[in-house]
Amino acid sequence: MPQRSMAACSATSGSNAMTDQPANRRGLEELAEGYDAFILDLWGVLHDGLKAYPEAVEAMQALKARGKRLLLLSNAPRRTEDLARQMANLGLSQDSYHHLMSSGQDAWTHLRDRPCDWYRDLGRRMLHIGPPHDANMRDGLDVSLVHDVQFAEFVLNTGPALQSTEIGSLEPVLRQAADRELPMICANPDIRVMRGEAVELCAGALAKRYEELDGEVRYHGKPYQGIYDSCFRLLGDPDPARTLAVGDTLHTDIAGARQAGLDSAFVPGGIHASELGVRMGDLPDPGTLTALFGREGEHPTHVIPAFRW
C-alpha cells in the first residue's frame, strides 16, 4: 500500500480543532493592533476571480500604513511571477503587499531542487494534467513531458483542463495512472473555487479521486505545514502568536492556520457563502455558522464579514 496524503517532503499532523466560539469582528480595525504579520488568502478574500474587492484593497493599504507585513498565500497551481501578473490584472498591484507565495511555486521548487529522496526517485518523464495556462509550471525543470500515461513516471496535477464541475473525461486517465502506481504531485489542494458566482473543480478534487483509486499523492499548499514554513521565511520569522491568517475555506485556510499554530479570521462570504446563505459582507446566523464549524471540525479565532478595514 503506498504512503499517501503527504505534504512536500514530510507528513504533517495537526492538533485538535479549537472549540471556543469565534469572536465576530466588524473588520480589520478591531484586529490590527493584535498582529504584526498577516497571511492572506486571495480568492474569496481579496478577489472573486474576476476583480478585487475594493474594500479589501483599502484594508491592505490601511494595514501597510500601520507597519504590518502582508503576505498573500494562494493555492493557485502556478508560479508566483505568473500569479503576480494575474493579481495586477484583477486590481491587486504588487505595491499593495510585501510577499506572494503559491502552492504552484512550492511544487515547482520541489520539482526543480529535488530536496528529498521521494522527489529524487520520481524519474523525469512527467504527465501534466492541467489547463494550457499552467504550462509555465514546466518551464525550467529537468523533465520530459509525455502525453501518454503508459510512458509517464509521475503525474503533475494542476487541475482540470477546462472549467468544470465534474471529473468526467479525466476518470480514465486517473484510473490508468493509479493502476501503474504513478506518484501524483498536487499543486493545489483546493477541492473547488468560486469564479464570480460559479463554482469550479480544482486540482484537489482530482487528487482526492486519485487517492480513492489507491493512488499516492504529495500535496503542496494549504493546509500543509510546508507552505507555512515558506511563508515564515519570507516574512522574516515573525512571532506566530502575532501572525493572523485570513481565509474563506475552513479545510484549507482555517485548518492550515490551526496546524501552523496561528490565529485565524474566517470570511463567510467566500466559498461557504451558499451553504451559509450569505453574500460577501454579511455575517451568517450564529446557529448556522456554529453548525458549519461543527461539521467541518474547524473553529477560527475570529469571523469578519469581509476583508475590510
Automatic annotation (TrEMBL):
SUPFAM superfamilies the record matches: HAD-like
Molecular function terms, GO-annotated: hydrolase activity
Entries under Pfam families matching the protein: Hydrolase_6 (PF13344), Hydrolase_like (PF13242)
Record keywords, A-Z: Hydrolase
Source organism, top-level taxon: Bacteria
Biased composition (Polar residues): 10-22
Entry-linked InterPro entries: HAD-like_sf, HAD-SF_hydro_IIA, HAD-SF_hydro_IIA_hyp3, HAD_sf
Disordered: annotated segments: 1-22
Protein name listed in UniProt: TIGR01459 family HAD-type hydrolase
Taxonomic classification: Bacteria, Pseudomonadati, Pseudomonadota, Alphaproteobacteria, Rhodospirillales
